[in-house]
Amino acid sequence: MYDVAIVGCGIIGAAAAYELSRYRLRTVVLEKRNDVCDATTKANSAIIHAGYDPEPGTLMAKLNVRGAELAQELCARLDVPYRRVGSLVLAFREEERPTLEALYRRGVRNGVKALSLLDASEAHAMEPGIAPDVAGALYAPGAAIVNPWEYGIALAETAVKNGTELRRSSEVLSIGRIDGGWRILTNRGSVDAGFVINAAGVSSDKVHNMVAAPDFTIRPIRGEYYLLDKSEGTRVSHVIFQCPTENGKGVLVSPTVHGNLIAGPNAQAVEDGGDVSNTAQGMEFVRRAALRSVPSISFRDNIRNFAGLRAACERDDFVIRAAAPGFLDLAGIKSPGLTAAPAVAEYALELLRGEGLKTEKKADWDGTRKKIRFRDLSAEEKNRLIRKNPAYGRVICRCETITEGEILDALHSPIPPRSIDGVKRRAGSGMGRCQGGFCGPRVLAILAREYHMAPEEIPQDNDGSWILSGETKRGGSADA
Amino acid sequence: MLDLIVIGGGPAGLAAACSAWEGGAKNIVIVERDRELGGILNQCIHNGFGLHYFQEELTGPEYAGRFIRMLKSTGVEVRLDTMVLDVTEEKEVHIVSAAEGYRVLRAKAVILAMGCRERARGAISIPGSRPAGIFTAGAAQRYVNIEGRMVGSRILILGSGDIGLIMARRMTLEGAKVLACVELMPYSGGLNRNIVQCLQDFGIPLYLSHTIVDIKGNARVEQVTIARVDARRKPIPGTEKIFNCDTVLLSVGLIPENELSKKAGIRLDRRTNGPVVCENMETSVPGIFACGNVVHVHDLVDFVTAESQRAGAAAAEYIARGERPGCDVLELTNGDGVAYTVPQRIRRSGVKKSAEVFFRVSRVCGRSTLCVRCGDGDIAEFKRDHLAPGEMEHIVLPKALLEKCGSGNLTISVKEVSHD
Q1: Residue of A305, A394, A468 with shortest CB distance to B143
Q2: HSE value, Cβ hemisphere, 13 Å, CA-based, for B343
């Protein structure tokens, strides 16, 4: 019997697992996909929000501000790319200035530090890339950009390193009460646990309904994005928002921690819970809105479109509470969920203690993680590394300068990737302008070689996403 | 200090290095990131290479093999499995390899011969889901021809570039069903001979003025919807056709690979996406030359070879005699119907007998006259029976003619005499 079972390993489940891994607890995490952080956590704006947006007094407001405080140190401890670049909310007309003032007041009430209102000339001086007709801006120096999936993976990896058990490709089918806890039935056997955390994201209503009366419904809202070449990465140096509307925070333009430029999202309610398709209309909307803020963006240098789902529900706040004795919902986590994640985990632990979970600190907990990034090393460090292991001298991904050594590091990490995209999310191969056209076959060959698998068995991403259908008439042999 | 560093060991780098050697440069290094020389030719196992240069029909590996043998008869040093991370204006080349680690090489001259890469899905923002099974044609070609693996059984090809056309035939020969080739433009971007030999001969339909408007599939491609486009290339509602398939191959253009050129501060041409070059393939940085697909995307490797030989010879001359004064420059500009020219600049002092100008037209034309204009007057005309963007054009301007025209711009334009 496990002490705690966590359903879902996106950023919320991963943060909860990380938090619990500090204590002498048997924890298991159940993830239906073949990798962690492979849904909403990998497809969002990649922003640590300052916290002026949520309504004061809500959980969203409290956990946003606390989460943003925690993120900087946590990312440093986990070696996750994080840059505090600050954000600007633009007003295009005088009529929008009251919106900025309202955001400012809200931010102050939420406890956001160092907010300031800029007039047109101050805004243009700070960010020359914005449209000439910007009438003013709200500046939040505390906003940051982050690599969201690496943040989540690092939390999950560190939890696993500290004894947490992770079961992937394990979909929860039903949950029933047993003596002293819960029995969770999955497609790969059952799991018994004293306490359950529901961190199932877009499916969190379904998981809730397995143990309690339905009282909320996830209505996913899809957001589409452009990711542009690094040649566009310096169009702006802050996160650029527009004034929010009832449809959300609107389209942003921002540099990414990888040096690219991101533009998006739109907001489209989707019927099918898993539909992350891009649409011609959605992409056109994002393109126009982004050019409204930053007119110089060259969309012909786009390298990828993607879309993600906000796990929104009909309530205006996160749904974080005990749904049944010893069963916690961490649901309805829309934006600022990525920012709030570590604070959500802190709060969840507090609630679990209230439910009766006994926690005793581990003496040997190691909450840190370290990663080699060849590209960022000095010439001397590069040479030292290659002398130690020549695999670091073999560049596999040319666009991003990712070496075989880094790919092997990923393969030997606490949560080894099972797919080409799993390697991409850890090592960064295929993230660049050719989008894996060159390195894809080489990464596939390394996976097949290291895992002693046939090339046909290596998926692009989730289970079933096969790449190769078999040998040609004369066959061949893959070598890395 | 080396005489010359050639970046890239594909057809351009091989020919350039051989010619530089013949021209008297002796201390030459080719840096190649793959494990063998030959570049993309190694996966082009079809024939049709060498008709111009060798007057015989070779496969890609055979064509590369001839130049690799030529190179072996020289003293050119080859560094395989070695990646160039940086090139500076001072001709320092930063390299990394498993064998040697991270090093900086210095040379009197550098030749950029990095080739090009394929445009991927993001470049054209194809709507729909993002399952596995969407490959650039070149990536699929590598799996099939080098790894001996199939990438699917029911294939739709978007774009009618040459690699896509070649792969339509290749996949068919390997037993896959190629359902259609879909081209956004009203004409193909590939060579006419490939349309005939790779599509028509196998009964594969070519849908011109069509594009993909939706891709369905959760884990793997399941269905693709195409539609006709209007004159502004926007899909026309009601013209959709649905294909059940598991694979999409993209052959939607090639982009010269110039990230290193940018680092070296070399001026690029937004039309070619390659360096602006002079008549001898010298870039805006003296002593750095460029040739092959890194300059502009060629249709035939034979022309890559010819261009690279010029670059190699010019680099050898530079090494022997140093910088050439850049005065007396004719700038080439695009007139009506011309998409780009290479070179973009001609230094008359550098022209020996004649200057060769390569270019592509921007639309399909029937019987046409190519006009070369300098100042107010036409200085030369060339007749063509047919012009298409998929086929590179080439004219020769004799030195005497260039001497005749004043200073300023040379404009090349197309006048269509009668439509096909």
Answers
A1: A468
A2: 30
**Cβ of residue A270 closer than 8 Å to a chain B Cβ:** no
Paired residues of A2 in beta bridges: A193
d(CA B141, CA A245): 48
The pTM for the full model equals: 0.95
Inter-chain touch B98–A390, beta carbons under 8 Å: yes
For residue B149, give the nearest of A275, A398, A455 by CB distance.
Answer: A455
Q: Which positions in chain B touch A477 (Cβ < 8 Å)?
A: 147-148
Total domains in the fold of chain A: 3
Taking alpha carbons only, the member of B33, B114, B110, B42 closest to residue B79 is B33
- Chain A residues touching residue B259 (CB < 8 angstroms): 399
Q: Is residue A463 part of a domain?
A: no
Greatest Cα-to-Cα distance within chain A, rounded to the nearest angstrom: 70
The verdict on a CB contact (< 8 Å) between B122 and A302 is yes
* Cβ(B24)–Cβ(B146) below 8 Å: no
Same domain, A303 and A331: no
On whether the B327-420 domain is CATH 2.60.40, my answer is: yes
Using a CB–CB cutoff of 8 Å, tell me whether A478 touches chain B: yes
The tens digit of pLDDT for each residue in A149-202 reads: 999 999 999 999 999 999 999 999 999 999 999 999 999 999 999 999 999 999
Do A277 and B174 lie within an 8 Å CB cutoff? Answer: no
* Separation between Cα atoms, residue B184 and residue A203, nearest integer Å: 39
CA–CA distance, A386 with B119 (Å, rounded to integer): 32
Q: Domain limits of chain B?
A: 1-118+253-324, 120-252, 327-420
Mean pLDDT by 10 residues, chain A (480 residues): 98 98 98 97 97 96 98 98 98 93 97 97 98 97 98 98 98 98 97 98 97 96 97 97 81 98 96 88 97 97 97 96 98 97 98 98 97 97 97 96 98 98 98 94 97 97 97 68
Contacts of B149 in chain A (CB under 8 A): 455-456, 468-472, 476, 478
In a domain, A30, yes or no: yes
Could you tell me the CA-to-CA distances from A402 to A229, A423, A478, B83 in Å, in that order? 17, 11, 20, 11
Whether the complex's predicted ipTM is more than 0.90 is answered with: yes
Contact B127 A280 (CB under 8 A): yes
Residues 6+ apart with CB under 8 A from A328: A195, A196, A197, A198, A320, A321, A322, A348, A351, A352, A355
**A387: domain range?**
374-457
Decide the pairing of beta strands B247-250 and B2-7: unpaired
Q: Which fold has domain B1-118+253-324?
A: FAD/NAD(P)-binding domain (3.50.50)
* CATH class for the domain made up of B120-252: alpha beta
Do A120 and A128 meet the contact criterion of CB atoms below 8 Å apart? no
Biggest CA pair distance of chain B: 66
Taking CB atoms and an 8 Å limit, are A303 and B120 in contact across chains? yes
Of all residues in chain A, the one with the smallest CA distance to B146 is A476
Same domain, A69 and A153: yes
A65 and A2 within one domain:
yes
Nearest residue in chain B measured CA to CA from A475: B148
Active-site residue list of A: 49
* B99·A278 Cβ contact <8 A: no
State the residue for tokens 């680092």: B263
Residues of chain B positioned with their CB less than 8 A from the CB of A394: 81, 97-98
Helices vs strands, H then E, count in chain B: 9, 30
**pLDDT at site B322:** 84
Edge to edge, what strands does the sheet with B377-384 contain? B345-347, B329-334, B408-418, B367-374, B377-384
Residue A468 covered by a domain: no
H or E segment and range at residue B401: helix B399-404
Question: How do the residues of chain A divide into helix, strand and coil, expressed in percent and rounded to 5?
Answer: 35, 25, 40
Which chain B residues touch A469 with a CB distance below 8 Å?
Answer: 149-153, 246
